Amino acid sequence: MTASVHPVDQKLAPTLLAPLALQHVLVMYAGAVAVPLIVGRALNLAPEEVAFLISADLFACGIATLIQCFGFPGVGIRLPVMMGVTFASLGPMLSMANAPDVGLLGIFGSVIVAGLFGLLVAPFISRLLPLFPPVVTGTIILVIGLSLMRVGINWAGGGQPTMIKVVDGVPGAFPNPNYAQLPGLAVAFFVLLVILALLRWTTGFARNIAVLLGIVAGCALAGVLGMMHFDKVGQAAWVGIILPFHFGMPQFHLVPSITMCIVMIVVMIESLGMFLALGDITGRKITREALTRGLRADGLGTLIGGIFNTFPYTSFSQNVGLVGVTGVRSRWVTIAGGGILIVLGLLPKMAALVEAVPQVVLGGAGLVMFGMVAATGARILATVDFRTNANNLFVVAISVGFGMIPIVAPTFFKALPHDLHPLLESGILLAAIVSVSLNAFFNGVKSEAEASAEAAGAAAAVEHG
């Protein structure tokens, strides 16, 4: 390995690569399987069909991750990214699931349309780079971290405070009786302590896989306490083949397709923030061409998702936090993670084993990782001139306030048209829109060259700060 190789492109030894990749898979697994699980149950699919949805999702996750990280001509940002189903699509898909003339095949059709749409509009979305100076990117990344903390806290509590159950064919929300129980909180706290101890008193490889070791220790404790069960592992098949159009040929409906295209715009703007965050964390300059390749991979991954019986894909922000915690910036780690996901999709028994990891175990790790995302945003904001340009304070303050609305007041926008909810229920998107608008209002929009130079300077400051 030569000194000229950027850390993002460094190839690690297999003995290092495998545990680091598995760590990424464990971090994103719960989020990856949640959407197909909820949609499958909302559609009253048989248990074996829900299991197939989950396997298909893992398989497509792996393919999309390889496309994004390994890269092909014109596609893939070639950064350490793990791809998974976006939660922004969940609400619209549940509405489609309840529409008798749409159903699962109509969902797959709208996903395919959204994927093609994403491929077409990627170059136009990437031209927004001059709108994202450090005051904007730092604010968005800070809000990403704060938004993710809700996920990590709920993981530590054992899931969501309310559960979605299907009663008489209609999904509804019911209190989760297992939420915030003392044994689960104790396990999450134990995982957190193990990770902190490893970060404090170890170096090198052990420090790099501190999150994985914390999860393993948490699983051991959960097993002793009877909180980890392997019934599904024994019932699962060893091998399962994922074929395109398993449920039949997709159906195309105008309104669902338009709705999913709107979701795709939301996803791509969020991905823009993720890519800029990874650029800052890894020290790699993010150009407009790189953003275009990354956004195209989102579109291509979504298209593949629709073909292979699954849903829209995006870059998972929790794995961005993991990159920040471990300091391992090689994209070959997530390439290996993509390979593991493909294997899990083809080996239902192995997928069931990973699924057996309790959410409370992931919660202890999530508090560390997601806090690191917010801390990265704070470090970027530390490079912003607040002393001579007080207007930057207003950009940050108001944007963070808007970004917190969906978190602290989920029903705040309930009186607005339902079609706007995919846009308004994303705190990241709200923060992005408000910060971009306020920065343009107070500071104007710089040229692409000036914006790239400023972003590179901020990345260098963060890298050596």
Structural class: mainly alpha
Proportion in β-strands: under 5%
Give the strand line-up of the largest sheet: 1-4
What is the radius of gyration? 21 Å
Q: How would you sum up the major sheet? A: 2 strands, antiparallel
Uncertain segments of ≥5 residues (pLDDT<50)? none
CA-based shape: globular
User: How helix-rich are the residues, as a percent range?
Assistant: 55-70%
The domain tally reads: 1
Order of helices and strands: HHEHHHEEHHHHHHEHHHHHHHH
Q: Mean of the pLDDT scores? A: 81
Number of helix segments?
A: 19
Short key terms for the protein model shown above:
465 residues, mainly alpha, two-stranded antiparallel ribbon, 19 helices, 68% helix, globular, membrane
Protein model, in words:
With 465 residues, the chain is mostly helical. The protein has one domain. Helix content is 68%, strand content 4%. The protein has 19 helices and 4 strands. The protein has helices spanning 14-42, 47-70, 90-98, 103-126, 134-157, 182-201, 204-208, 210-224, 231-235, 254-282, 288-307, 317-326, 331-346, 348-355, 359-381, 391-408, 421-424, 427-443, 448-464; strands at 83-85, 162-167, 170-175, 313-315. Strand 2 and strand 3 (170-175) form a beta hairpin. The longest helix is centred in the first third of the chain and has 29 residues, at 14-42. The two termini are 26 Å apart. The model has no long low-confidence stretch (mean pLDDT 81). The chain crosses the membrane at residues 12-38, 50-72, 103-124, 131-153, 179-199, 211-230, 254-278, 332-354, 360-381, 393-412, 424-442.
